[in-house]
């Protein structure tokens, strides 16, 4: 680490003269250099990583593209239950890639080193476990489990097989979140006491009303395999297949899709293992299209005091019919400032507010309700005890950080995963971290559907 870098980190907690320019130049320089070196690295034949993607929906295509930005990564095959997506995969990635509608055919291939699992949520855990038993490295989309009961078994298999396993919540690899964590740990906002985090959306696509192809049918979709592990079987329904996030039989609703992004970032910055109490409410306010999960949901989550952090509370909210428009934020509130992380890991701001030494007198106060003699005596005493400096609220400049133009956290998340596959480096989001972020979000669903407070043992990762 450079001398400038050490000095910068040493003074983060006390300096009030940081500007957005100095923060950007010092904090981003090292990360940019690492990314440039990684992109320019020459990869030999023995360093090549051959991947396959299971589930070629929106995230499957996006994850595959992000993975292929890492030098030395080659796509071998794709799996999907809709024939049209396999044809599209060949159009995009080359006619010679292997395609199948059976994930087991992917896992049986000797030329596949790692798999991306981007299926509907109900298949994440089962396919991940199969893949690890087959000796494959696993990149699992979030949430890593469909049900809380699946988490400990998946963690057990990862430890037994020693497979590389990473969960796909890219915020934990974001340069902005890394810098935010440094500032948080340096005391930039004082002692944390609460967090407000939300996703607002205002569009049909944002509410998961995804486009359905004209040729969708039982002839082009392997409907039986899709719902093979569902407790209740339905006749073929294109909406249930192509818009599976709307149905709790296959998805995990707004909690599993979006709360988990928020909690992953929160846990990363605060080093928290998780909360102890969870309660949520929700409504199906607008998108009455047959879905059986809410489109507006709020949760109150309590984190107890641990060696990692003081006690604090988190409020989470998703609104799929928000007049504010599309907007996401995580506000970490401390005793001396607020850290506001917007977007998907592309930047943050810190606004500072520190109370003066003196408690204050007059204004919105009971002082004026006393006699004039009492008021004068109280004011004289106050001015004797507190200097003018003590009575002034400190004026501490805030700061703004933005990731470099064109930066994409998903690319860094995959670069980390591939480094782990190639060199045995630790992943940034392993199965334990992934489950500790996912389980409280799935508990939000349990709280909503069962109308009760859920008590969670974050250390042992189980419902109390």
From TrEMBL:
Gene3D superfamilies: Dihydrodipicolinate Reductase, domain 2, NAD(P)-binding Rossmann-like Domain. Pfam families: GFO_IDH_MocA (PF01408). It comes from the Bacteria. InterPro entries: Gfo/Idh/MocA-like_OxRdtase_N (IPR000683), Gfo/Idh/MocA_oxidrdct_glycsds (IPR050463), NAD(P)-bd_dom_sf (IPR036291). GO terms for molecular function: nucleotide binding; oxidoreductase activity. The lineage of its organism: Bacteria, Pseudomonadati, Bacteroidota, Sphingobacteriia, Sphingobacteriales. This is Gfo/Idh/MocA family oxidoreductase. Residues 49-168 form the Gfo/Idh/MocA-like oxidoreductase N-terminal domain. Keywords: Oxidoreductase. The keyword Cell division does not apply.
């Amino acid at each position: 680490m450079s001398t400038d870098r050490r000095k910068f980190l040493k003074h983060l907690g006390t300096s009030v003269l940081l500007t957005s320019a100095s923060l950007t130049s010092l904090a981003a320089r090292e990360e940019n250099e690492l990314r440039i070196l990684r992109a320019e690295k020459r990869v030999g034949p023995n360093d090549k990583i051959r991947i396959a993607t299971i589930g070629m929906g929106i995230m499957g295509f996006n994850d595959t593209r992000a993975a292929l930005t890492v030098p030395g990564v080659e796509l071998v095959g794709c799996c999907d239950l809709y024939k049209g997506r396999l044809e599209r995969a060949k159009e995009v990635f080359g006619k010679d890639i292997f395609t199948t509608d059976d994930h087991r055919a992917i896992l049986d291939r000797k030329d596949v080193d790692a798999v991306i699992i981007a299926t509907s949520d109900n298949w994440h855990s089962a396919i991940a476990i199969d893949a690890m038993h087959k000796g494959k490295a696993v990149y699992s989309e979030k949430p890593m489990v469909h049900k809380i009961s699946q988490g400990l078994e998946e963690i057990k298999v990862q430890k037994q097989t020693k497979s590389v396993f990473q969960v796909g919540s890219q915020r934990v690899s974001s340069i902005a979140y890394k810098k935010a964590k440094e500032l948080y740990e340096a005391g930039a906002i004082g002692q944390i006491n609460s967090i407000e985090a939300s996703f607002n959306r205002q569009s049909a696509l944002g509410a998961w009303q995804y486009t359905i192809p004209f040729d969708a049918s039982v002839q082009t979709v392997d409907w039986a395999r899709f719902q093979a592990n569902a407790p209740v079987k339905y006749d073929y329904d294109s909406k249930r297949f192509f818009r599976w996030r709307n149905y709790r039989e296959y998805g995990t609703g707004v909690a599993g899709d979006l709360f988990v992004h928020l909690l992953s970032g929160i846990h990363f910055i605060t080093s928290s293992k998780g909360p102890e109490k969870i309660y949520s409410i929700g409504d199906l306010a607008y998108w009455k299209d047959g879905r059986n999960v809410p489109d507006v949901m709020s949760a109150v989550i309590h984190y107890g005091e641990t060696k990692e952090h003081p006690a604090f509370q988190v409020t989470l909210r998703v609104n799929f019919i928000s007049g504010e428009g599309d907007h996401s934020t995580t506000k970490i509130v401390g005793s001396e400032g607020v850290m506001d992380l917007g977007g998907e890991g592309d930047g943050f701001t810190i606004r500072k507010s520190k109370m003066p030494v003196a408690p204050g007198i007059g204004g919105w106060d009971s002082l004026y309700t006393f006699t004039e003699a009492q008021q004068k005596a109280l004011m004289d005493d106050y001015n004797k005890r507190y200097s003018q400096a003590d009575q002034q609220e400190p004026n501490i400049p805030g700061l703004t950080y933005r990731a470099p133009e064109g930066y994409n956290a998903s690319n860094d998340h995959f670069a980390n995963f591939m480094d782990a596959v190639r060199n045995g480096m630790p992943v940034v989001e392993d199965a334990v971290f992934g489950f500790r972020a996912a389980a409280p979000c799935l508990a939000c669903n349990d709280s909503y559907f069962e109308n009760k407070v859920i008590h969670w043992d974050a250390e042992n990762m189980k419902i109390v």
